[in-house]
Design a protein that fits this description.
Blueprint lengths: L9 H14 L12 H8 L3 H13 L3 E4 L3 E4 L7 E6 L4 H7 L4 E9 L5 H6 L8 E10 L2 E11 L16 H7 L6 E9 L3 H6 L8 E9 L5 E10 L3 E6 L5
Parallel strand pairs: 3-10
Antiparallel strand pairs: 1-2, 4-5, 5-6, 6-9, 7-8, 8-9
Length: 245
């Protein structure tokens, strides 16, 4: 187990240490973690401190208490979505293949975008426009994911005329003659700003899975950059990424 320091409240340090063990899968999904007493003895702290740290991770949906058995890392069987997502499917289609029916709710278009970061992600020069849309993903009317998607305006001139409540982003992209051939992604756990947390109906202290991915077409042009946020206690995500040469 890792050592603790004295730069932050002890319960926050213990929470972070446990979170890191979950993130790196030192504690695997479904695995029982050490008891409050065992953690307290190891770190030479009070059980009250370890209990507070564990309670926080339970509230964030990363741990689950089982009466008479102990505390376990949340697994795919704990009434959470288990999504297999590859480079040829959208999140919506991937979930549909699992029998999970979801709907889209378009929140807004991003207009007048002037972002060096997004232009770099889309391999654009400083004068080329970036278009964007924000959408919620809902299951049984309840939001579980938020997506901010950006595309090169030069490839999609009618982007702002599309109703993304009813038209999938990838369906639209392919209708414009761009077919997904390569996909790069990375994931991390983080919290959201108040506006985004409110859309997902969660607190600003709740963890979400953040996935950032870029997609290239048959001409190796970058045609999309998306930041997706899935509520941590609503889903686990496995990515199968195939990169074309």
């Amino acid at each position: 187990m890792n050592k603790i320091s004295y730069k932050a409240p002890l319960y926050e340090q213990i929470e972070h240490l446990l979170y890191e063990k979950i993130r790196t899968q030192e504690y695997l999904p479904g695995q029982k973690i050490p008891s409050e007493r065992e953690l307290a003895e190891h770190y030479k702290i009070s059980r009250t401190t370890t209990k507070r740290a564990i309670n926080s991770l339970v509230e964030h949906g990363l741990l689950v208490r089982k009466l008479g058995k102990g505390t376990f890392v949340v697994s795919g069987i704990d009434q959470r979505f288990n999504i297999s997502f590859d480079s040829s499917r959208s999140l919506t289609n991937s979930m549909s293949l699992k029998g999970i029916i979801i709907t889209n709710k378009q929140i807004k278009f991003f207009t007048n975008i002037d972002s060096k970061f997004l232009r770099q992600k889309l391999a654009l020069n400083e004068t080329e426009p970036v278009y964007g849309v924000q959408r919620l993903k809902l299951h049984c009317g309840k939001p579980f994911a938020l997506e901010n998607s950006f595309v090169p305006g030069k490839f999609f001139p009618n982007f702002y005329q599309i109703d993304f409540n009813n038209i999938g982003l990838y369906d639209y992209i392919e209708s414009m003659g761009h077919f997904l051939k390569a996909h790069q992604t990375y994931q991390q756990l983080e919290t959201l700003m108040p506006v985004e947390a409110k859309l997902l109906q969660i607190s600003t202290n709740s963890f979400v899975f953040k996935s950032c991915y870029s997609t290239a077409d048959q001409n190796q042009d970058i045609i999309e950059y998306t930041e997706s946020y899935v509520i941590a206690n609503e889903g686990s995500i496995r990515y199968h990424v195939n990169l074309s040469n």
